[in-house]
Structures are given as structure tokens and as C-alpha cells.
Amino acid sequence: MTFRQFAYRNVIRNHRVYAAFFMSSVSSVMVFFIYSMLMFHPKVEDEFLREIAFQGMFVAEVVLVLFMMFFLFYSMRAFLEARSKEFGLLMHLGMEKRQLNKLVLLETMIIGTAAIIFGIVFGYAFAKFFFMIVREILQIDSLPLYFSWEPFALTIGTFTSLFVIISFISVMFIRDRDVIDLLKGYWRNEQTASYSLWRAILGLLLLVVSYALASSTTQERLIFLSAILPPLAALGTYLFFTDSLQWLMSFVRARKRWYWHKYQLLTVSEVSVIMRENARMFFISCMVSTLAFLALGTLISMSTFTHQFHRLNPLGLVYSSKIDNPFEEAHINSLTKELEDKGLSYHLNKFTVKRQTSSSTQKPVKIVRQSDINRLALVFGYPVVNLEQGGAIFLAYSEKSLEELKTKKVWTVLQENSIPLFINSVYPRVLFSPTELGTNVIVINDDDFNLIDEAMVGANAAQSTNHIFVFHVPQWTATKDIGLELDSMMTEAYMNEHSEELPFYFENSGLDYSFIRSTFALLLFIGLLAASVFFLASGSFIYFKLYTGLERDKLQFNALRRMGITDRELRKIVNRQLIPQFFLPWGLAMLHSTFAFMSLQAFWQGIAELSILKEILIVLGAITCVQVFYFYLIRWRYLSHIR
Amino acid sequence: MSILKIDEVTKVYEGKVTHRALNQLSFEVEKGDFLAVMGPSGSGKTTLLNVVSTIDSPTSGEITVDGIKPHELKKNELAYFRRRQLGFVFQDFNLLPMLTVEENMVLPLTLDNMNVEKMEERVQSVSEQLGIQSILGKRPNEISGGQAQKTAIGRALIHKPSLILADEPTGNLDSNSSRDVLELLGRINKKERTTIVMVTHDPIAASYCDRVLFIKDGEYFNEIYKDDHRQTFFQRILNVLSLLGGHVGDFSTVRLP
């Protein structure tokens, strides 16, 4: 038997031990490969999302590789610890440490190579299927399977180096031990679960502060908070697992009435040791889960997004121009031409919007003519407005404002022209988004409208009157390539902060929608990737840890059984030891994402007034189900080993 | 009154090679006895202890502990029986590493859901008896082997069991600690009238007992009772051991005075 054969047989005959490790490796290689396939896809690169897609996928791959590195490192170490008796024996028989390193390296490479090969084969096999899903999401015409060396090279290169690095690092842990310690077997370092009080308090404080900030997010502070919250919460989580948890446990321990009750004594002390030992891994689990939850939750909300987005932005293209805009005609003509070239049907409506000061609020109000609204209403099949002179109704900009304005009745005078108005109702549908027409809009009778000829105070005639061109396009999602020129002009003006000087404003809800969709799609990649690998990996990690401690646990449970523990009590003890391992990082991640969603909600309110609560609950529920299933699976394995 | 009664107990391990570990073994232990069971390797000592401690059941024969026939009990009742009637002292202590000495000792009581004041009282009196009050807050890895075994004895005593079973309690201890532990067991036996059954290889350890029972190949071989001098008792134990007919190498840890 050669040395290589020895290594090979070690792996093959220990396959039960390696199975979970192997599976997680294969799945991560597979996901990574599929991802690389997408990243290097010739079609994706030049047709869709361009730069941003590439970068997003790149970020996701980096996250994946980092997570895999931690995962591989931790599980390798757990493995080597579990096998320390075996290593001790080999060294006792005269194996050099150099040879031992070589053995571990060889074994890791055998598993690694197999995982890479299987991962790539499965990845290539599923790539087409995955492409089909992605094609649906991104609404690309076709996304064919292709063959190119790049994804293969990237995957093989990344994971080979990952496995080599990991095996070198993990071998260092055996090297430092004496043969006698190895032979005695891995006995966990049973130091008192120590913690520092100020770190413990700081951890809890950071969490509370970041939750408080997240739940009180307003749109103005969103940018600032999104920069400061993640690191704050991450640090808090880390300290929570390393110190705060131990601190809280010490409270439990101090209360003997509770602590010295039934098997609490056993479970509490055991759990606190487990938590302390694996604090870092739990921290990583928790953060990655949070990320995955967030990504998945955001994604799910996409399904309602299409519907809601359209209801809130019913107009296809909106071109608003100041009255002295010299390009008005040219722009409108080019838009119509583009629409015709694309073969899209449309209705063009022209609005005149005047600005006046309302006496009741002393604020500017935008005024629209009833006949303009009615023409648009006819196109949509919405109810028609019929106002007397002196009558007016509000025009709501969102569902929420619609509710609020329903019961509002206001007497007011348009100050510049002294036109008295009684606003007693609201138009029952949302027509314009706030960016298109602002938030304070009323509709009045045509005769009243014609009486307005004095410009608003503090503004010239050109500033107080706007023309708005509304293109209603039934196939509104197909307009994303229309008016790209205008869009880039606007972007440029905004970048240079000249937006005030720009004589027009152009909004293309098809383009906005496709832009938001792509952002979502990007999150889908990251979310699915992180989540799927994470599911397997975190469960497997707990499995390894249990496997490592199996011998010790067997002894312990044997002693306990002699002391008179019933089977039911044993099961309960195991339950209580396993549940925190499974559900504490999980629960904290849930809490994190709940608060993160709260601040996200503020963001959504800003752009689309979208409620994502229901979707989020569904996602969290589904993920919890998977986790519970995993918990029972692993508990079953563990119990059958222990007995 | 006999607290433990072994009646014609036979234990056969079925398998590829059938092995008869105990063969029609009978003896009785009176209340307040301090009994050592000796015998060469493979004589069935550990099997006997397992059968008595109810984690293994005899193939035939009957065991009675304090009037209860544990092998007729249901699984859960059996666990409760072990919890309340038996105390164990193991060769490798089997203390739980994450618990302090005090917590290790109260463990059997917490399982039985006793109230905290009573538990503290018990810990107080038992630790005084064992002389380990000073280490109550320490963890098993911070104390010596002798202290660990004393803790284990405390754990076995704390629920006032009717029978204490000890499996080579001095097997992992140096001679000083051994003496300490054995004298302690003897003292407890005298003072509290606790019945102790100890399985051992070591004639010195056996010489601390009131009575030594020898078994060979799973069968009763002989028994001797203590006399006034431990030295002569020890000598007599050695004599029986040599009669046991094993090879010299069998009494592995014999230390002649």
C-alpha cells in the first residue's frame, strides 16, 4: 500500500464522515460555477445590465468564497479534531509530521478534486435550467447555453486554491500538539466560559441602538443610516455571541431556583460552553442568514411590485416642460417617432398645469384643467370629472394620500387671481406620481382655469405654467428603450447639479421599472446563492461539531443514564442543547432582518409606497420550516448515535 | 436484613462466540456492609456491577435491591429506581466538565426536582463530610484526582441511596489519594451505615472492606471477612488470590508492603 493509496482509502472508507462535508462543497462549487457561467455569458455582458450585473455577480461570488473559506476552515478543524486519536496513533507508529501534513493535504485534495469535478458537472447540467429562470426574470429574449473556458478556469482555480489554503492552515493545528494529547483524544478545552462585562454590555447596547435607529428610519436619514447601521449591527452581533450571551447565562446561573431545576443544570451549562466555543461561527451564520433573508425578502416583494408599480405609475411616458422650453416640439416628435419605430401604440395627451398660491395654506398649488383630466380618464376608462365653476377636487399622488384626501374639505382662494374655490372631494384614482406632478394638485373647472392669468408670486410666467405631455402606452414595460437620450440629458444635469436650469423633465416608468427590476434581479442572484449554500453549510457545520464531540457525549450520557435519566429526559436534554445551536443565530438573524425591513420599508414608502410585510412573513416562515426540518434530521442522527 | 440479594444470576452474551460472563452466582449483602468483589481479569466483575446497576439485565436468576426487583420494573421506573436507590462511583470519575464541583454533586437532586434550600443543605453536609468545602466553586479540570473522586463520591451520596456501587474507584489515583478515598468510604460506611459494593483489582483497596468476595469465571469462588488488623487481612486476601489459580500477571496492580 503506497502512501497515496493510504490517503485514498482513508477518504473512501470514511465516506460517511465526509459525506456532509463533501455535499456542502459540491453544492457551493456548483453554485459558484453557475454563477460564473452567468457572469461570463456573452449575452448578459453586452445586452443587459452591462457593468452593474457583472459587478453584482462578482460581489456575490466574493461573498460565497469568503463564506466557503470560513465554512471549510471550521469544518476541517472539526474533522481533524474528531480524528485526533487516529493521528495520534499514526504518529505513535512513527509517522513524521511532514508525512502527516502530506496525508491531510492529499485527503483534502482528493475530496476537493472530487467536489470540484462533481460541482462543475452538476453545474453545467443545471446551467441551462438556471439560465431559463434568469431569462424569465431579466426578460431577455434568449440566454443560450454556451461553452467557454473562463467559468471553468475561474471555478477550478478558486476552489483548488481554497482547498490547498485550508488544508495548510488546518494542518497547523495538529502540528502544535503532542502525541500524547492526540492519543487522549480531542477533549474540549473546558475553560470557564469567560466574558468581559463591558464588552457584554456594549454588545447589547449596540444591538438596541441599531434596532432603534432602524425602526425610526426616515427617508432623509436613509443614506446615512445605511452606511452606519450594518457595521454597528455586525459588531453588536459579534459581541452578543462572544460576551453578552455568557453574561445573560450568568444571570440564569445565579438564580438557583431556576438553574437547579431538573435538567436545566445540564443544558444551561452545556449550551453556554457550546455558544462560547462556536461564537465566531454562529456570528458568521447569523450575518449570512440576515443577508440571505434580506435578499430573499426583497425578491419576493418583486411579485407584488409589478402590480403596484403600475397602479401607482399608470402613465407610460411623461414629459413635462416649462413653457419657454425651446426643445419641446423636437423632443415630443422624437418620442413619438421612437414609439412608432418600435411599433408601440400610444395615446398622447397634453396638459397645461398652472401654479398659484393657495390662501388656506399659503403654499403653491398646482392646478389642472378638468377637460385635460377627462381626456386622460377616457383613455383609461376612469370616471369623468364634472365640476361647477368655483368647485375643485384634489388629485391624489398615492393610495395613501387618496385615503387622506377623501374626507378633506377646504375653502380657499387662489391669491394671485382671487378665484374662490371649494375643494370638497378627491379624484378616485391615482394618475400622476409625485415626481411627475408634485404632491399638492387640484382639478378645477375650465372656466376658472382660463381666468388664471396672473403668474404666481415670486415667479415669472414661464415658471408658473407647465406643459405636460402624457404618453399612455398599454405595453408600458416595453418602453424602456424609449427616450434614452432625454434620460441621459437629465442624468447629466442632475450629476452637474443643473437640474433647476433644465427646461424639461422626463419620466419613463417602463425604464424606471426595468431599472428597479434589474436591481431586484441582482439581489436574486446574491440571495439565492447565499441562501442555498448557507442552508447546507450551516446545518452541516452543526453536524460536524456534534460528530466531533460524539465520543465525549456518549460517555457523558452513559454516566447520566447510570445516574438514572429516563429516555424522555435524555431526548429533552438533547433537544435543549440542539435548539439554541440551530435557532439562536437564526432567531437573531430574523430579528436583524425584521428591523432591516423596517428601514427598507421607509425606503419603499419613499419611492413606491409599497408594503412588503406580507411577503416578508411568508419568506421568513418558509425558511423557518426548512430550518425546523433540518433540525429534526440532525437530531435524529445524533440521537441514534448517542443511544 | 439483606439489602442486595443475588440469586442464581447467569448472564450469557450471545453473539458469534457465546460467552458466559456470570454463571449461577449467588450472594447477599447486608445493610451496612462494605463489600469488595475481586477476581482476575475477565472473571465477570464488571458484568456483575452492570447487572446490579440495572443497565444490563441477567439472562436468568433474580436480583433484589432493598426489596425491589429492579428487572421487573418498566424503563422509566427503572431510571427513577437508579436515581433514588443507587449511587455510582466510577474509575474515571465521570464528572461533567462544564459544571462546578457543587453543581456536579447536586445533579442527581436537580433531576429529582428537589427544592433549592434542601439541596444546599445536603451539599453543605456532604461536602463537610468529604472535606471538600473549599473547592465547591471549582471546575473538575482545576482539581486533583483525589478531589475529583471525592466529588464523585459526594454525588453518589447526596441522594442517600440504599446502595453505593463503586467500580475500581482507586484505579486512577496515586497511593495517597487512594488511601484518602478508601478511608473516606470506610468512614461513611461506618458512620452512615451506607452499604457499599466495590469492584476492584487492588488487594490494598480490598483490604479496607469488611468482607471480600472472590469470583472466578463468573462463579462464586470464596469469601473472607475482615479481622482486627488490616495487614493480616491483606495477607489473607493475597493468599486467596494466589489460590484463584490465575497467573501471577493477573494481579496487575499488586503492591506488596
UniProtKB/TrEMBL annotation, chain A:
Residues 62-175 form the ABC3 transporter permease C-terminal domain. It is a multi-pass membrane protein. It is found in: Cell membrane. Pfam families: FtsX. Keywords: Cell membrane, Membrane, Transmembrane, Transmembrane helix, Transport. It comes from Viridibacillus soli. Belongs to the ABC-4 integral membrane protein family. PANTHER family: ABC TRANSPORTER PERMEASE PROTEIN (PTHR46795:SF1), ABC TRANSPORTER PERMEASE-RELATED-RELATED (PTHR46795). It comes from the Bacteria. The chain crosses the membrane at residues 20-40, 52-74, 103-131, 151-174, 195-216, 222-241, 282-305, 520-544, 582-604, 616-634. This is ABC transporter permease.
UniProtKB/TrEMBL annotation, chain B:
The keyword Nucleotide-binding applies. One of its GO terms (molecular function) is ATP binding. CDD domains: ABC_MJ0796_LolCDE_FtsE (cd03255). Keywords: ATP-binding, Nucleotide-binding, Transport. The keyword ATP-binding applies. InterPro entries: AAA+_ATPase, ABC_transporter-like_ATP-bd, MacB-like_ATP-bd, P-loop_NTPase. Residues 4-242 form the ABC transporter domain. Pfam families: ABC_tran (PF00005). It comes from the Bacteria. Belongs to the ABC transporter superfamily. This is ABC transporter ATP-binding protein. It comes from Viridibacillus soli.
